[in-house]
Design a protein that fits this description.
Keywords: ATP-binding, Nucleotide-binding, Transport. Helix content is 37%, strand content 24%. By secondary structure, the protein is α/β, with parallel strands linked by helices. α4 crosses α5 and α5 packs parallel to α6. The structure holds adenosine-5'-triphosphate. Adenosine-5'-triphosphate (ATP) binds next to α1.
């Protein structure tokens, strides 16, 4: 496993348990969808996976080991993220070259002409024209911004992309294009993906495995096709039924 939560529980200060005994992991080249309604604990899992919070109980493991200051840089280079809102995630004062080069700078991977070549290659891989380097985020549509965010996340050739509701802020046509792009990167770069979504159709289009979260607990997990065809839990059946484009179970 590249990244794994093992028997993790989490309690916010003064709150009830937001996660209870959750185990979820992503292996090399795997694509896993994490689905659940609002409040089920998806964002909390992302925070724990990014080492932004520590579990109340259980472990967060990167390559089978707890994340420590000594492994943090390797962790950051291996696990990159894309967030929901491409309008707030790109700094409006920086041009596209500077935005996409950020992981190269902060991780000390490359600079100067080497960095510029990596940025250009990354932008090309997400279908953004090479003459975009000197432009600013406001010149791009929501879908293009999300492509730029994906270029930034993949410029350092991570092993795992953590995508937190990456298409929820986009219109339906753009959603499909961005999902197709993620599928392409998964194929061509062998990128593992954990996609968090409340939208099962997005997960069905991208992820081989699905984990269903309800009230901070994993209620069902397995191959996406099995879960869609024969959901075991009433909660999952309701999620499946809420997707109009999927066949009813
Ligand atoms: N800062 C906080 N303090 C206290 N409780 C919190 C905090 N953040 C989240 N919670 C609680 O933890 C639980 C899980 O929330 P979380 O945000 O992880 O769910 P989610 O599935 O990501 O929801 P959404 O899809 O709306 O983002 C909820 O009951 C929520 O009310």
């Amino acid at each position: 496993m590249i990244l794994e939560l093992r028997n993790v529980s989490y309690r916010y200060r003064k709150g009830a348990l937001a996660l209870e005994d959750v185990s979820i992991g992503v292996g090399e080249g795997q694509s896993v969808g994490l689905v659940g309604e609002s409040g089920s604990g998806k964002s909390t899992i992302v925070r724990l996976m990014l080492a932004l919070a520590k579990p109340t109980a259980g472990e967060v493991l990167f390559d089978g080991e707890p994340i420590t200051p000594a492994t943090m840089r390797r962790f950051r280079a291996s696990v990159q993220t894309v967030f929901q809102d491409p309008y707030s995630s790109l700094d409006p004062r920086q041009n596209i070259e500077s935005i996409v080069a950020e992981p190269l700078r902060s991780l000390g991977i490359a600079k100067g002409s080497e960095a510029r070549a990596m940025v250009a290659a990354s932008l090309a891989s997400v279908g953004i024209a090479a003459d975009s380097l000197a432009r600013y985020p406001h010149a791009f549509s929501g879908g293009q911004r999300q492509r730029i965010a994906i270029a930034r996340a993949t410029v350092c050739h991570p092993r795992l992309l953590l995508a937190d509701e990456p298409v929820s802020a986009l219109d339906v046509t753009t959603r499909i294009q961005v999902i197709d792009l993620l599928a392409e990167l998964r194929e061509s770069a062998g990128l593992a993906i954990l996609m968090v979504s409340h939208d099962l159709s997005a997960v069905a289009a991208l992820c081989d495995e699905t984990v269903v979260l309800n009230s901070g607990r994993v209620v069902e997990s397995g191959t996406t096709s099995t879960i869609l065809a024969a959901p075991r839990e009433e909660y999952t059946r309701q999620l499946v039924a809420a997707v109009p484009r999927l066949p009813a179970p």
